# Entry
Amino acid sequence: MILTPLFVIFLIVVFLLVWAFTNTIDKRKWLSFLISIVLTPIVYFYVFYPLINIFSSYHHEKHFDVEAWETKPSLRYEMSNEITQEQMFKGKTKSEVKAVLGKSEWYGWDDSIKANSPNKWNYNLGYKPGAFNLTQECLELEFKNDKVVSVKQYQLETKFEEAP
# Structure
C-alpha cells in the first residue's frame, strides 16, 4: 500500500467520523479512542473506499494491447485514453487499422451525404464503471483518402424501451 497525502487525509477523516460516532455511544474518551483506532481501517476499506469507487468516474487505464482489444471488448475503455491522446492510428490506412482493431462495428453518420459513411469507422469501448453510468463509450476513426485523419472518443446515452 502506498501512503499518499490524499490517503492519509481520508484516513484522518474516517477516524474523526468513527470517533465522533463512538463518543455518542460511550462518553469515556479513552475507550472511544481505542475503538476508533480499531474500527477506522475496517470502516475505510469496507465502507468509505467502496463508496468512493462507486460514485467517482475514475477507471483503470492500460496500454493498448491487440489481444485484450479482441478478447475483452467490454474493457476497451481502459485503453481508450492512449488511443485518443496519442492519436495512435492517425495516418494509418484502412487495412492497417483493420489488422489491429478488426472490422468496424458500425459506420458513423456523415451529414454531407445524409447517410452512414464507410469513411467513419466506429468501435464500442464498453461502459466505464460507476454508479448510475448509462453512457456507452465509443471510438470513431475518420478516413480521408484511405488514411486516418482523426480519432475521437464520444459517449452514447443508453435508452431503455418499455416492454409492450
Summary: Residues 5-55 form one domain. Residues 15 and 85 are 39 Å apart (CA to CA).
